[in-house]
Amino acid sequence: MKNLFNKFFNPKKYSADKRLKIIEKDKKTFKEKYEKQLNDVQTSLKNKDEISFLHAGHIGDIINVLPVIKEISKSHKCNLIIQTNLPAPDVYNSHPAGKFYLNKKLYDMLYPLLIKQSYIKKVELYNNQSIDINFNLIRELPINLCFDNKRYWFHIAGIQVDLSKKYLEVEDHADLRNKITICRSLRYQNPFIDYSFLEKYDDIYYIGVSEEYQSLKNNIKNLKFYECKDFLEMAMIIKSSKAHIGNQTLGIDIAEGLKSPRMLEVCPYFPTTQIHGENGYEFYFQAHFEKYFHVLNNK
Fold it and tell me: Which phi and psi (to 5°) does residue 31 adopt?
């Protein structure tokens, strides 16, 4: 009755009490379910020479754990175990893995890029292997994930990394070089941004999926499409690009890892990707988009 009274006659008190209950519930959940798991990570890092990591996707999330793995590899052998077909609660129509965070097809496309990284001893599918660091915990912990995605994994591993340093290594692409490349998911688009000014430029290539390409071609009539055979080839193209433009999706995550010239279209409503280090810009508004494009295009 007291809560009901406050709801109608003392809403500030009602909101404060409700918030306090949520905090107490989160503290209890963390203490009972997650504190020991996170503490065990530190024990493993202290006592083991070889560390196995588990991750179930999304694809960009897997790329974004690599700075932490690279840092840990300075003192440990590192194995990356990938779990496929874990159901995703926030499925959207154009999700490339359907109802999952990651499926086998996407794993097969990602594997060549992951195994190329010298600091990873092996990459394999999850089959009940022993796991030391479970990155999937980030989706269970009672925390708000509206912060830089590349820092999520700091809070699982207890490792801080200089994100301005490169953490992906690939060769240049043999054919597609010095182009403007774009990878723009239908999700996380910024409604203040219009790509149509790029129509005046030649040699602009879309390197994501066909559905995304068709959507953007409505704004850039002369946009070309290149279908990457896997994500290693995508990374090679991005490394060889004059500049890469993308929103919060795989292309910009790869460009961040390479520290190649890049521009991030930030989503105003869920800004969980940020640019770190040289050659990179991020924009919310059209004037800044065009300004930064001209900076990179004229280099």
Answer: -60, -40
Single-letter amino acid, residue 268 = P
Domains and CATH numbers, the chain: 2-157 (no CATH), 180-297 (3.40.50.2000)
Phi, psi angle pair for 127, to nearest 5°: -145, 55
Q: Measure the CA–CA gap between 208 and 277, rounded to whole angstroms.
A: 24
Q: Report d(CA 267, CA 284) in Å as an integer.
A: 7
The structure tokens listed for 147 are 């912060």
- Distance CA(183)–CA(89), nearest Å, equals 24
Two tokens, residue 283: 């924009």
CB 293 within 8 A of CB 263: yes
Query: How do beta strands 243-246 and 224-225 pair?
Result: unpaired
Which pTM was predicted? 0.93
Least confident of 91-105, 126-140, 200-214: 91-105
Number of H helices, E strands in the chain: 12, 10
Spatial CA neighbour of 297 closest among 281, 285, 286: 281
Reduced to 3 states (helix: H, G, I; strand: E, B; else coil), residue 219 is coil
- Residues 163-198 have pLDDT tens digits of 999 999 999 999 999 999 999 999 999 999 999 999
CA–CA separation, 53 and 157 (whole Å): 10
3 state DSSP class of 44: helix
